[in-house]
Amino acid sequence: MSQLLDSSRRDSSLGLLSPSATGAQSPIVGRGEPATMEGAISLAIQRSNSGTTSKLSVNRFEIFRSGNRVAIIMLARPAYRLGEVVPVVVDFHESEIRCLGLRVTLETSEHVDPDIALRSSASILRVSRRIFATQHESTISADRVNFNLAIPNSSTPEFITSGVNLEWKLRFEYMTMDQAVGGDVPELLEEVVEDERGTVSVAVETMPCETFEVTLPLHVYGGISKFDDIHEQAPKWFDID
């Protein structure tokens, strides 16, 4: 946790997240290091959502393919606790390549130091990958889609050691129009029968497309149970008569 706090401290302003919150300040902001684990987690989440010195948003990602814009991904914040829901908004308003479908997956995988790893990185990823939530949306005529992925309370939070790291990711699988065919909206219906009574059309069975994947890192910290609160608030010593 201290390593994650040091990383967020270098890229944050340590100020209030809301300019209007001038009266009641958070007890963990501006008072040195937090004394409890709950305070450390809250401080790490707040610092992760603060503006960085590079003036680049940590919550907005522009996705391009072959130099053409596909979508803009927007997150509420880059850090969460166990049991929380991760809201994701994908905007296609300024897309230059038509996206037909999108699948979003919340998953974890392990990264092992190559000096101690007995397998290749691809093999470790395939074995250690675990999926916790998946949502799919058809985006043929959509300008914006929303996803809500829940982090299970029973899952393992992110951790960093000298040999093994557990990483949380959001994986986006895009299905786009084949650029060789063109970026126009495809015909979704094909005519079957036409007579004096009208026309009967059915959905097309095939459509030229191509797929690609994008992964975004996500920080997931452990939740604080009532037992942890009682343990942290308990006195460190007591007298014995």
Indicate the structural class. Answer: alpha+beta
Proportion of residues in β-strands: 35-45%
Termini, distance in Å? 38 Å
Radius of gyration, taken over Cα atoms and rounded to an integer in Å: 24 Å
* Main sheet overview: 6 strands, mixed
**SSE run:** HHEEEEEHEEEEEEEH
The total of beta strands comes to: 12
- What is the 3D shape? elongated
Provide the low-confidence segments as ranges.
11-31
The averaged pLDDT comes out at 77
- The helical percent reads 10-25%
Number of helices: 4
Notes on the protein architecture:
By secondary structure, the protein is an alpha+beta fold. Helix content is 15%, strand content 40%. It is built from four helices and twelve strands; from the N terminus they run ααβββββαβββββββα. The strands form three sheets. Strands 3, 5, 6, 8, 9 and 12 form a six-stranded mixed beta sheet that branches. Strands 1-2-4-7 form a four-stranded antiparallel beta sheet, with no helix packed on it. It has a two-stranded antiparallel ribbon with strand order 10-11. Helix 1 (2-10) runs parallel beside helix 2 (37-48).
